[in-house]
Description:
25% helix, 7-stranded mixed β-sheet, alpha+beta, 3 domains, Immunoglobulin-like, Neutral Protease, domain 2
Amino acid sequence: MKKLFYLLTISLLALNVNGQKEWEGKFEQLGPDLPTPNEYRTGSGAPGEDYWQQKVDYDMVVVLDDNQQTIKGTEEIHYHNNSPDQLKYLWVQLDQNMRNKNSNTYKIQTNGMLEEGDTIPAKIFSQYMESPDLDRGFNITSVVDVNGNPLKYIINQTMMRIDLPEPIESGGDYRFSISWNYNINDRMSEGGRSGYEYFPKDDNYLYTIAQFYPRLAVYDDVNGWQNKQFLGRGEFALEFGDFKVAITVPEDHIVASTGTLQNPDEVLTVTQRERLEKARNTYDKPVLIVTEEEAIENEKSKTQGSKTWVFEAEMVRDFAFASSRKFIWDVQAVKLENSTPLAMSYYPKEGNPLWEEESTKAVAATLRVYSKHTIEYPYPKAISVHAASIGMEYPMICFNFGRPNEDGTYSDRTKYGMIGVIIHEVGHNFFPMIINSDERQWTWMDEGLNTFVQYLTEQEGYVDFPSRRGPADKIVPYMSMPKDQIRPIMTNSEQVKQFGWNAYAKPATALNILRETIMGPELFDAAFKEYAERWAFKHPEPADFFRTMEDASAVDLDWFWKGWFYTVDHVDVEIDEVRWMKIGAEPSMAMEDKDIEEAPKKKKRKNKKSEKEEVAESPRHDDVPAPQTDFSAGPKPFVLVETDDRMYGEYRNKVDDQKIIDEVAQKNYYSIKFSNKGGLVTPIILEFTFKDGSTKLERIPAEVWRLDEDSITKMFSFEKEVEKIVLDPYKETADTNTENNVFPKMEKKSKFDKLDGKA
């Protein structure tokens, strides 16, 4: 009984307070940490046979007031309950409410200590310390059923619960309407993804309008209702549906929008329609629908009339639009394998000449490369709208920065920054507008995956593009930070530190390393495309991505997801020691009979001192070879002897000892010891440079660390003599310290070197 109690105690000590093993190796399978597969989501990472998701359709009428800078609208919502559950209430997202004067967004902001004599720009102080001059949140004027009867609702910050008269049964549907209005925010002074920009020189506005209508929250098989509050960072979780939206704007405005224009004869001139028709068959360069000269004339008109632009879109998760009398508009057709979507750009004269030269070209490149690596772009158009100091995405439309100087000149930094943000935001059509992850929970699933394919687009679509995110060496500054300043990728959007590094750069870099160094492009691309195809127009979770990438490649990647996504470890592998060895003839090194007799005994020893302890206590320390710091001392000898008969066990056959000895007699053997300083296991990539100047690259999978995650030793043999060894020679693994990656060891300079040896 005492022995049983002892064993039980030991077992309990091996568990921590969360019931997990206190020690969990880096190669332990991720499976137990992932959700259990079921009929909705399979163990392969694919949707299950009973997978379901809700559908929400909107029929909307919206009016933009250019004099008061307000939006008002009414929407009829048709909710389809495809879940197996009965729903007693619906949750609606009121994201614009983050701009209410009493919003929690303002209340939870933290600031540095204000010190005597501090100088702070007034704009920054006002934006972060003062309440907005107007309440910018939704003013809900009515919530009624199809018969006009009021529905009971309660607003909790950015969420609104609508209580239903009768539950919506599984397979049922429900129609109701919401009316609202709000004051549009000035993005220059207040910031924001949506809002307006004012141009004082010509007294005009450019509106980029999004999150402008109450939107149904997601109800799914993983979380039920997604009801996390919108605090400003974690973006949007939305259902797919069909939209019909009528947008009334000033008569001289041009509107860019999600969806297909239904009434071009009413809102476009004959000339504009003719140019648009020409653009549908023009693949080499954009066709101007509204020229710069026409836009400048339009700026002066300030007509008092209005026009209503009607758009319809099928199977989109959101809707956004832009409106201004300042817009230049160009269009180009993009030839994909099975479709010909239109690439479009809308921009004021302040964007030229850069936007006319580069914007639509970047849109087209994005559609081509993303369609190659994910799914073919399914929508009829993709729009890039020029708006100052922003990058933000919605189905078929995005808002992008990149403005030349007032004289029209621009730097390479401005040019490539603009192209990069256009690729990124247009790319969001795929992640998450089509492959529809929950941005409120997992920023990396849209930003990280999208940044990775953005990098592929920059490299495949342009020559010598200076990509900021993607290459392994670019992530080193972040991975080198103190652990308390960073958090794992698998962190909720609102709790992420170093947001750009964590949610964009690190996952993009991880996937690039996975593609180029671990899996290879062929295996990776097939698996990544499989994920996109499986989850297009559905709601994937992290486990679905992890499982699909393994399922479609036959590569065990659990160690990779655990290290890169669940920890803050970094790559820092050191070449600890190198021993150059060759077969020697010294008799003293020969194996004697007594050594052979002792070998089996050494293996059977129990409860005795370890070999390391015996060596440490041995008085013959001089017999232990000192570590080599270079190759100048030549190779150390070792001896091969004939194999003793006792080592063959029951086998009747024998190897030809002399033949083996003769074959390896001239070879050089290099025993290399590596230590894992950073904690993140990684493939080992070695470049050997030989005395004749030739080189050889050796690639060793990360599984080499599977039995010892801290230190390993591996032997290499060559006909030639090695002159130099470099670990990670092409900077593929994001190793944070390259000084310990070279043998012979790099000399560490003394602090007295600069003083010419004078202390």
